[in-house]
Design goal:
single chain, about 230 residues, alpha/beta, seven-stranded mixed β-sheet, three-stranded mixed β-sheet, 10 strands, about 40% helix
């Protein structure tokens, strides 16, 4: 039965470290974080983003590296993050735990938008710091307007998008209009043989590659406007 499968699967989902500080922990597991560790609790609820897949891990690692360097350079952290195709909300919640001030998360699946909001609450993130939206930004102009309003029309300092190459390429013309000045886009979910296409699409939109990580044939790429 699917219930048996789910319980079976749960026994293999244990706390694990991502990057230098984050420990991703399923909501049903007990874990005592060390002094320098940040606990990221996740209840998957049927949405993508347990943190076990390379694409999620790579994106969190790249985000942490960027935020660490940003803080060293600027003495503060970026204010606003946008999570496109948020799934469980793991990337945006991770960003908030690492010190970003507020986040908006959007998913094409309604249950994912709800799961992300619930996971934010699970991590004691105040509702005013985390807003979730449901819909397809590629064909729903209203959502785009609401996302821009959510960033006070000044744009997001960080966009994270962990989907698949085709969707990233389709969304690429929208990124610049959602970004704040000096903002960054983190793209993940890119399989080896699609990396060049994503890079070309982003370059066409005026972005340059700043940093990338690779693991097991998957890539996470960090872009800035040229």
């Amino acid at each position: 039965s699917s219930e048996e499968w789910e319980d079976n699967w749960k026994q293999y989902y244990k706390p694990f470290k991502v990057g230098q500080r984050l420990v991703v922990c399923p909501s049903w597991e007990e874990y005592q974080p060390a002094a320098d560790e940040l606990l990221l609790l996740i209840e998957p609820g049927g949405s993508f983003g347990t943190g076990q897949h390379q694409t999620t891990r790579l994106c969190l690692e790249l985000l942490e590296q960027y935020l660490t360097e940003y803080q060293q350079q600027h003495g503060c952290l970026p204010e606003k993050l946008l999570d496109l195709g948020c799934g469980t909300g793991i990337l945006s919640i991770g960003g908030l735990l690492l010190g970003v001030n507020s986040a908006a998360a959007v998913d094409i699946e309604e249950h994912s938008a709800h799961a992300a909001a619930e996971n934010a609450a699970l991590n004691d993130i105040a509702p005013e710091r985390y807003q979730t939206f449901w819909g397809n930004i590629l064909d729903n102009h209203d959502i785009l307007i609401r996302l821009k309003a959510c960033a006070d029309h000044s744009g997001y300092d960080i966009i994270v998008v962990n989907i698949v190459a085709d969707v990233i390429i389709a969304m690429s013309p929208l990124f610049a209009g959602l970004l704040a000045e000096q903002g960054r886009v983190f793209c993940s979910g890119i399989i080896d043989n699609r990396r060049a296409e994503v890079l070309a699409a982003m370059q066409k939109q005026g972005f340059k590659l700043q940093m990338e990580l690779q693991d097991g044939g998957w890539w996470a790429m960090l872009f800035q406007l040229d």
